[in-house]
Design goal:
Bound molecules: NADP nicotinamide-adenine-dinucleotide phosphate
Order of helices and strands: EHEHEHEHEHEEHEHEHHHHHH
CATH class of the largest domain: Alpha Beta
CATH architecture of the largest domain: 3-Layer(aba) Sandwich
Structural class: alpha/beta
Oligomer: single chain
Largest sheet: 9 strands, mixed
Shape: elongated
CATH superfamily of the largest domain: NAD(P)-binding Rossmann-like Domain
Number of strands: 9
Distance between the termini: 51 Å
Helix content: 40-55%
């Protein structure tokens, strides 16, 4: 554990933040929390101790490390550079880590705001979902200065199985974009395969057993085919979040001149799922869209 980090402020106790902050409390750190909805903070304190504060600035006061895990770019701005944001309370020499999936532009903006105040900054989006956050098995993709990464890494390893510095500020978000680009087309491919198996009168479970160890195998196939075949989507990573992420990818691709035709198409398929009422369904619900073309 780094000698110079004993007090941590954690901002955003949602599906991901709640267990992540719990791992830091479990490591014996003094954890000061802020959550917009107070009930969630009260529930966290009842389990883990620590203290709750009325604003991000208050939570961040005296903290060596401030960790943020909220929704999107604007949410991060509100809790960091906003009027009661964490930067108002942070001292020179402290460190800000943002786990929100956000744009690389926001990372550059926060990096500049932190440099002005001599605060370290890492953009550090995660993958692995609620289960990864709870079991401490997240993949954490970081952007920032090597010295800041070295300081934060032992703490991030409390909930991250793979914690990697990808390059300067923004590199973590760019890497997470690659992750989401790879996943989008893959889930659509899996949905089409299962849809085709059904139409062909095959036993889809046996099809998956036969092909999952070969070149068609994937994490999505292993972990999602059962619930897809059972038409169950009340779990996992929500379509609303995926659309936010794909929007970030498509914006960045336009700036870079990168071509993402399949990502753009799958984004529209997810818009169909939202129109079917599936904003909170798991991303594997692309299969339901194929089965119910009239509703899509
Ligand atoms: N869930 C996943 O499987 C997963 C996987 C990888 C990455 N992520 C990313 O991780 C981030 C968090 O996801 P999550 O699933 O934990 O979301 P969540 O359960 O909806 O939690 C979001 C948290 O952010 C807070 N928040 C949102 N907007 C805010 C604002 N303007 N001011 C203050 N607080 C605000 C919420 O406060 P309230 O409690 O008041 O609403 C809540 O604590 C997102 O960027 C998401 O894309 C999620």
């Amino acid at each position: 554990m780094p000698q110079d980090i004993s007090t941590v402020a954690f901002i955003g106790l949602g599906v991901m933040g709640h267990p992540m902050a719990g791992h830091l409390a479990g490591a014996g750190l003094d954890v000061r929390v802020y959550n917009r909805t107070t009930d969630k903070a009260t529930a966290w304190l009842a389990r883990h101790g620590g203290s709750h504060h009325a604003t991000p600035a208050e939570a961040a006061r005296d903290a060596d490390l401030v960790v943020v895990c909220v929704g999107n770019d604007d949410d991060v701005r509100q809790v960091t550079t906003g009027p009661d944001g964490a930067l108002q309370g942070m001292a020179s020499g402290s460190l800000l880590v943002d786990h929100t999936t956000a744009s690389a532009e926001l990372a550059a903006e926060l990096d500049a705001a932190c440099r002005e105040r001599r605060i370290g900054f890492l953009d550090a989006p995660v993958s692995g979902g609620q289960q990864g956050a709870e079991t401490g098995a997240l993949t954490i993709m970081c952007g920032g200065e090597p010295a800041d990464f070295e300081r934060a890494a032992p703490l991030l390893e409390r909930y991250g199985r793979s914690v990697t510095l990808m390059g300067p500020a923004g590199s973590g978000q760019l890497t997470k974009m690659v992750n989401q680009i790879c996943i989008g087309g893959l889930i659509q491919g899996l949905a089409e395969g299962l849809h085709f198996a059904d139409k062909a009168g095959l036993d889809a479970t046996r099809v998956v057993e036969a092909i999952s160890q070969g070149a068609a195998g994937s994490w999505q196939m292993d972990n999602r085919h059962r619930t897809m075949l059972d038409d169950e989507y009340a779990h996992g990573f929500a379509v609303d979040w995926m659309r936010k992420d794909l929007g970030i990818c498509l914006d960045q691709a336009r700036r870079l001149g990168a071509r993402l035709p399949v990502t753009a198409l799958v984004d529209q398929f997810y818009a169909d799922v939202q129109a079917m009422g599936g904003g909170r369904w798991d991303t594997s619900s692309l299969l339901r869209r194929l089965h119910d073309p009239d509703k899509a």
